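Researcher: Next sequence.
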Amino acid sequence: MRAFIILLCMFLAALPARAVQPDEVLPDAQLEQRARGISAGLRCLVCQNESIDDSDAPLARDLRLLVRDRLVAGDSDQAVKDFVVDRYGEFVLLRPVFGLHTALLWLGPFALLALGIAGLVHGAGRHRRRETPALTDDEKTRLDALLRKD
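Model: Next structure:
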């Protein structure tokens, strides 16, 4: 039982802490859920590897409040995202949009994987095709002599 409690505590400690403060939470549960959904997809510009929903940075708090203000004003989820992207650039999106300017970002890992597999297949094929040269008459005679000695 003690081991279970320790494992449970370790698991709970590993969960990300939400940085949303109680004074930020909207009274309307549906609007709050929409705000959390949008915030989870926006990058903290200070931390850069966390969503604004997870970050304690003051700028992340400002962005969370901005998202909630826009939702209260009646903006759609996409309108809120577009507003934030227009203001801070596409870098603010945790999942960048797929476009011509981000194609390398999305397709690069797959292209590198395909090149690696092609290189391995090509190398293995070259290795298999390499033939052992035939023995000359002199080498055959010496080999026979060596084998007869044993």
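Model: The chain has six helices and no strands. Residues 31 and 71 are 7 Å apart (CA to CA).
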